[in-house]
Structures are given as structure tokens and as C-alpha cells.
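WARN  no MSA supplied for this record, continuing single-sequence
INFO  ligand: S-adenosylmethionine
INFO  echoing inputs
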Amino acid sequence: MSSEHTLYIVATPIGNRDDLSVRAMQVLQQVDRIYAEDTRHSLPLLRHHGIESRLWPLHEHNEEARTAAVIEHLSGGSSAALITDAGTPLISDPGFKLVRACQRAGIHVSPVPGPCAVTAALCISGLPTDRFQFVGFPPSRSAARQVWLQPLAQLSHTLVIYETPHRIVESLFDLAQVFGPERPMTLARELTKRFETVIHGHVGDVLAAVQADSNQQRGEFVLVVAGLPMAAAAAADVQITVELDRTLAVLLPHLPVKTAARCAAELCSITKKQAYDRALKLQGR
Ligand code: SAM
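INFO  complex generated
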């Protein structure tokens, strides 16, 4: 392996330290520098695996400022690895700006794949995995969260959502409000750790189980939510089209088509393109 001029994006465990791959260990041993989201957090993992630490901090607050220095270091023929506190960097974690800047600077970026809470939760969810969407963390306030959830509730594929212990009950509550308590889901908590818990059920049951036991409100969570069954998705499409047509019928006589479509898109929680295409169709264009 020639590691010169290379930035390795290295996945680290999401709980169980022994989930660090053999190749991840080799790369972390060999590189000149390891950029870590929180050096104090990563040190015990590296020590556990006997990896000599050459840690430099790189987190969301200094990523932009540090990028030029990292590129200079790599351009000089050195190698580096990027790790975060847990799992795969860039997945709801720092690294995107650095990777993009490296690519633009012609520096080779190479993955060392491994643990990721998205795939860990999805593969044990018992929900369809042929099509899924990862949407990261929901907004922290309930009103914004409900607006954010609304278009997601119409999708026919599986959704993967991250959540923190502070908001797990409120988020499940909003999920029940927007998706309905009958939507099938799996709650994956503390995966690969001592208190790993997986609850399969409907949103309403999962909410009740978590509300009833404060231990279930601790730790790290992934919510895997079933998409609308195809028939229901189709019914929702019809309903949205009816709502969109009604909205456009009011707006189009008074506004330019682009403005009417933009307003309708916002009112019906759909994309501007969908609304614009429909507006043109209604106008017979
Ligand atoms: N980059 C990480 C990855 O690849 O999964 C995710 C980092 S993000 C800042 C942290 C979130 O990931 C947590 O709030 C939780 O939603 C999820 N997560 C991480 N580890 C987990 C675990 N062991 N069990 C369940 N969820 C976990």
C-alpha cells in the first residue's frame, strides 16, 4: 500500500472497540497524522489497539480553518487519516469540507470502510432494505420537526433517522403525530454496546415502551421507519395532486406561473419542480 499523498477516511467502532477492522488498524499505524474529532475520546480506542497516537484535532468548528494546512501537509508527500468519535466520518460527522477540498486539490482520498449506525440499524430492522433514505438528525424543536417529517411521511421507502437521548421521547411523539401510530418501525438503541436494545413494533407501541421506562431513554438511537405501503403511497399521491390543483387554481389567475408554483410547492410540501410541471400542464402548455 502506497500511502503517500493520501487522506484515508477511516471508520471506527460505534460501541464495541473490537469492531475496528484489521485494515483500519494498519492504516492508523502507518499514517503520519491522525485527524480526530475529539482527541481525548479517540485516545483510549487507539491505545486499546496499541496504535501509537499522532492525533491532531479536526472537528466541525475548525474543519474549514484547518483544511488548508491539511492539504499542505498531504501535498508535501505525507499521509493522514480522518476519524470521528464513532462510526464513519462524514455521516452526520465532520469531514465533508476536507474531502471536497482534497479532491479539488488533486489529493487522493481513500475509504477504510467499517461501522456505521445507519447500516447497523437497517440490517437488523426487519424492514425493507432495497430502497432506503438516511435523513440524519431531525430539527430540535417540535414545530420544525413536524414540518420536516411531513414530506417524509409520504415516501414509500424505509427511512433511517438519528436521535439523541434528550429528544427521543419528543421525536417519537411527533413521529406518531405525523406518520400515525400504526406505522411499523424499529428503534435501535446502543448498538454493539452492553445495553443494546432493539424494539420492533408500531410507532405508538415504541413510543409507549420508551415513555414507560426511563432506561430506554438513555444512550444513542437510530429510528428505522417503514415507508408507506405502495397502495397508500399512491393514494397519498392522488390526494396531493388534488390539493395541488386546488391551490394552483387559486394562485395562477393572480400570479406569474413561477411564483404560483413556488407558493403552491410550499403550501403542499412538495418540490418546486413538481408544482411547476403541474402548473404548466394545467395551463395546457
Ligand atoms: N458517524 C456516525 C455513524 O457512522 O453512524 C454517526 C455520528 S452521529 C454524531 C451520532 C449518532 O449516531 C447518534 O446520536 C445515534 O443517532 C447514532 N449512533 C451512533 N452510535 C450508535 C449506537 N451504538 N447505537 C445506536 N445509534 C448510534
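The chain has a mean pLDDT of 94.
INFO  checksum written, moving to next record
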